[in-house]
Design goal:
- It comes from Aquibaculum arenosum.
- The protein is of the alpha+beta class.
- The chain has 2 domains: 150 residues, 2,3-Dihydroxybiphenyl 1,2-Dioxygenase, domain 1 (Roll), CATH 3.10.180.10; 118 residues, 2,3-Dihydroxybiphenyl 1,2-Dioxygenase, domain 1.
- The chain is 22% helix and 36% strand.
- It contains 7 helices and 16 strands.
- The strands form 2 sheets. Strands 1-4-3-2-6-7-8-5 form an 8-stranded mixed barrel. It has an 8-stranded mixed β-sheet with strand order 10-11-12-9-13-16-15-14.
- It starts with 7 loop residues before the first strand and ends with a strand.
């Protein structure tokens, strides 16, 4: 079975206060784009752009409008990793193929946002496809087709003080690896999915997606976990150009982390509830 989804687009981090969240990720060494507002919704965002993917900090700016359940997420989970988004170049074709494979998907739907650029507003447009919970591999996810990518990927936004250049790993916790495996095979193809006793690994382009059981998460990540966390998206890994330089920057800014040969590992309370890792 050939993969339908072959590229990763971005991660979404739900934050309680968008401006506080922006300042915190700047402290971690990221360049933050001008603020964006979703047209017709009560949410806004700041994006941290890399060459082929990005981090989206998502917050509520008008609770009287549609928030796409971000209010419920923050109330039940607190700040943290909300979802992963995959890239599509043909949403209509992907919807048809995934339905043919027995998955329940909603869409396509149109979305636009306003980027509050100092030289004048930009209005990037997207098409989205959402997955029914039973049709996604253990975590909230959707697919996104960029209709105006030149507005979102701009050269000044791609340079980061910490040397960040790409998202290379996504971590989630699920209680049902079997169901996650079935959805993963339908999404990515059998060759991209590997199952172990307490984990599941999938590949999407350059990204490795790791799903583990709650017991495995508690054993492996211990005190780095967010307080009260049980299951769902948990963290992601960012590749940097120079790990030593990234370490020096984090130290100079008083960021708490654990350093190992393989990378730098931040506790959840340093990254708005996200288990954030830096690797070279």
């Amino acid at each position: 079975m050939k993969p339908v989804i072959t590229a990763f687009d971005h991660v979404l981090v739900g934050v309680a206060d968008l401006e506080v969240g922006r300042a915190n990720w700047e402290r971690l060494g990221f360049t933050v784009c001008p603020r964006g507002r979703h047209i017709g919704w009560g949410t806004a965002n700041y994006c941290l752009m890399f060459q082929n993917d990005y981090i989206e900090l998502l917050g509520i700016v008008d609770p009287s409008q549609f928030t796409n359940n971000l209010d419920r997420f923050l109330e039940e989970r607190g700040e943290g990793l909300l979802a992963g988004a995959y890239r599509s170049s043909d949403i209509d074709g992907d919807v048809a193929e995934l339905r043919r494979r027995g998955l329940t998907v909603d869409g396509p739907k149109d979305l636009a946002r306003i980027i509050e650029h100092p030289d004048g507003e930009l209005r990037p447009r997207f098409r989205l496809m959402h997955f029914d919970p039973a049709s996604r591999p253990g975590f909230l996810a959707f697919a996104c087709q960029h209709l105006t990518p030149e507005m979102v990927w701009q050269a000044p936004w791609l340079e980061h003080a910490n040397g960040a250049r790409a998202i290379t790993g996504f971590l989630a916790v699920t209680e049902d690896l079997e169901a996650a495996e079935r959805a993963g095979v339908a999404w990515f193809g059998e060759e991209q999915v590997q199952r172990a006793a307490d984990s599941l690994t999938m590949r999407s382009g350059e990204l490795t997606l790791a799903l583990v059981t709650p017991a495995a998460a508690a054993s492996r990540y211990g005190e780095r976990l967010p307080a009260g966390f049980v299951s769902g998206p948990l963290g992601f890994t960012v590749a940097v150009a120079d790990l030593a330089g990234c370490r020096e920057l984090l130290q100079s800014r008083g960021v708490d982390f654990e350093a190992e040969d393989s990378g730098l590992y931040l506790p959840a309370d340093e990254a708005n509830g996200v288990l954030l890792s830096f690797v070279e």
